[in-house]
Design brief:
By secondary structure, this protein is mostly helical. The protein has helices at residues 2-21, 34-65, 72-92, 97-124, 132-154, 183-205, 207-217, 219-224, 229-255, 262-278, 282-302, 308-322, and strands spanning 159-160, 168-174, 177-182, 257-258.
Length: 338
């Protein structure tokens, strides 16, 4: 009976959404072309790179702590601000674009990783054994501090970078619609694929990866087996902050606009992406990021953009109602199971 009512609810909400977006859906002939679909798929892939990297940051730290830390969206925002300023400084001093972007990525990643390590040692580690609400509230406080710091530093203004490498390197015509891949899109794809592949290899084949997997399965038992759980947690915090910095770099150089208040929504979307994929798993975080990017891009391409976030969050809620354990079937652990 419960599933039957859930199914009716899903059908009803889908009908409502379809009716709301019907006036603008498929407004032009281009929307029905193969080229339009290919271009939207490429746009979704670029957004998926951003969401997947940030969702992986959530999944990594949740795996070893069993706690939900809500501040990674603002950590990515901090990295994006940091990278914007460093990129502008490098470009104004006459650096080439490629050298400037490579430099600010390294500097931003190191600075953000140091921030993540400091937060883990000073705030989150002492609260790991406390109930989950304590560390969650502390992470909200960290987000507020980061937001206010960036607001004061920027004077409440958004920061902008000029478009980098926006010229198409691949361009084709499909059904009368032009499909383009810019150099920055290609760099974004390669960066995300390289980082995720490297992480998968490290977690599967290295000693640090085996230690991380042991801590995700049972933190107390891993400590009894001689694993330095605190060290694993610190290294995981560094890695999580690094992936948050990578997503901030993509946000800053690919989209060009950074605001002090964007971390909340960005972090929530990445957190939901991690949850709908299967919380605490790397594959689930990547799958959730891809699914969320596909939902956002699909809605933007077919329906009014004003209702995009409402519709996407509504669909996420429905997915969690129907499958609380996520797409890959991993349930969020209780405090008593940690």
């Amino acid at each position: 009976m419960r599933f039957r009512w859930s199914k009716k609810l899903v059908v009803g909400l889908v009908v409502i959404i379809a009716i709301a977006g019907a006036p603008d859906a498929f407004a032009g002939e281009a929307m029905r072309s193969l080229g339009y679909s290919l271009q939207q798929g490429l746009n979704a892939a670029q957004i998926a790179c951003l969401y997947s990297l940030l969702a992986v940051a959530y999944a990594l730290i949740h795996g070893v702590t069993g706690r939900i830390i809500l501040s990674f969206g603002d950590v990515a925002m901090f990295a994006a601000f940091y990278i914007c300023y460093m990129a502008l400084l490098a470009l104004l001093t006459g650096w080439s674009v490629a050298l400037a972007l490579s430099f600010v990525f390294l500097v931003g990643a190191v600075g953000t990783a140091a921030l993540g390590d400091s937060l883990q040692r000073g705030i989150f580690s002492p609260l790991i054994k406390a109930p989950s609400q304590a560390i969650m509230i502390a992470s909200i406080g960290v987000s507020i501090v980061l937001q206010e710091a960036m607001r004061l530093q920027s004077g409440g203004r958004e920061q902008w970078l000029p478009p980098f490498a926006a010229a198409p390197i691949v361009e084709g015509n499909f059904d009368g619609f032009s499909v383009r891949i810019s150099l920055m899109q290609a760099v974004t794809f390669l960066l995300a694929a390289g980082l995720l592949t490297a992480l998968g290899i490290i977690l599967k084949m290295s000693r640090a990866g085996r230690y991380w997997r042991a801590c995700t399965q049972n933190r107390a038992l891993a400590q009894l087996c001689g694993i330095n759980v605190e060290r694993v947690t610190r290294l995981t915090a560094l890695a999580s902050a690094f992936f948050a910095a990578a997503s901030g770099w993509i946000l800053a150089v690919s989209y060009g606009g950074v605001s002090f208040y964007m971390g909340l929504v960005l972090g929530l979307k990445a957190l939901f992406a991690s949850i709908i994929g299967g919380f605490g798993t790397i594959g689930g975080a990547v799958a959730g990021g891809i699914a969320l990017a596909a939902l956002e891009t699909g809605w933007t391409a077919l329906f009014p953009i004003n209702y995009r976030d409402v519709a996407v969050f509504l669909i996420i809620i429905l997915l969690l109602v129907l499958k609380p354990e996520g797409l890959l079937g991993v349930a969020v652990r209780r405090d008593s199971e940690i």
